[in-house]
Amino acid sequence: MTKRSGDSALREAASRLAPETAQSMLAVSGALASSLDLDVVLQLAIEHTCSLLDLDTGAIYLLDGASLHLGATTPPLPPRFPYELRRALLSDHPQAAESLEHGKVVYWKDFHAAPLSENERAVCEQRNLHSIMFIPLLLKDEPVGVMIVGTTGERERAFDEEDVHLSWILAYQVALAVANAQLYGSLEAAHEEVRASNDNLERLVQERTEEIAQANEELQAQAEELQTQAKKLRVTAEELTLSNDARARFLRSMSHELRTPLNSIIGFTTMVLKGLAGDLNDEQRLQLTMVNNAGKHLLAIMNDMLDLCRIDAGAVKLNIESLDVPALVDECVTAVSLAAQAKGIALTAELPDPCPQLISDAVRVRQILLNLLDNAVKFTEAGTVTIAVSCPTDEVIAFAVRDTGPGISAEKLEAVFGEYEQALESRDRTVEGTGLGLAVSQGLAGTLGGTIEVESTLGEGSTFTLVLPITQDEAISEALQD
Question: Could you say which DSSP state residue 314 is in?
């Protein structure tokens, strides 16, 4: 069993490769980068892994919560292989679970001597395995999946340190390729949602007057522009490397390219809804409202993703000034009051007397507080939402947003600030959200020299607390503004 984690271990493994092996790894990297189709990437990954490690067979599993989902095998499974046999509980495969949890490459030259579970042993016997290796797929030390590879029949393979080094480099490339393919798939789904909305809009607008027909033509032009930009983004995505810097460039480009056509779609649908192009019947108003809301939802996603890119690149511009805390809190409470009233939720604010003045960036502090309040109202079905301001010390000010919602289980708290995470397993999954809001808010809080803390009890509610320094060091403030 061999454990590795972090970039240093990856560099160490790469430095030990023979020149000819390094050339083979370059070929694998190119093959994995040749497609953004997840199924194709998975099949290429397991085939190249078995080939480079001189093994007969293998399977790649993706982690899906507490389950493993079979992504690809070599030799490939039959096309009609039952879906239910492609999934397994991680708890039934302890060696795979240990490999993922501890970041270990686990191997035996004869699986009969390995401490495998009944399920793991049954799989080995079913696939006629002999020597076996478990290779965890990690990205930023977070588990993505696991590759199980080995020899078949009587062929025995004694694994050595060179095999382990090679497996770590392969695992990193595979994990990054899988993450890129999954991200691309999410973007394609969002694009399909916009395209479907546009198709429906075309059908409705064709039934209207000449004025609405003209508005429809402009919307269609914007939709075609959106498709053109999406094609450019796909070309850009294919040209990007598999590095984290390349991923950030892709997200920044995607956000900027989509925001302009989305703003146009929102503007045109708003114009039609106001009756500037003619009267609408109830069904047409309903459908146009759905398109308008979908556009605003996608635009909010783009803005969150762009904020994440700025935070990752350290490019957030700040305007440090003196803030009126009571006025700021009142403004944020007012902004979410209608949503709270619609659900019958009591929305209150608690301020100390006297209330200290805060030296910070008003726009960013407001953005964080609005996100915390909006989440609290969104996930609370009944009871209260309170924002309480306090000064735990002379140096910091705390904004605590408390709700009486369903709460978050202890095991999910660590993931709540992760990107694309909604670690609130007990909350209503029908509530819209991409899991970016808290990640953006935590990043902005860090940029302002603070943090967001969370406490929660399942079934009772949650408290998210923004803690900020009351004053900013002048030199740091100037550097941030520059």
Answer: T
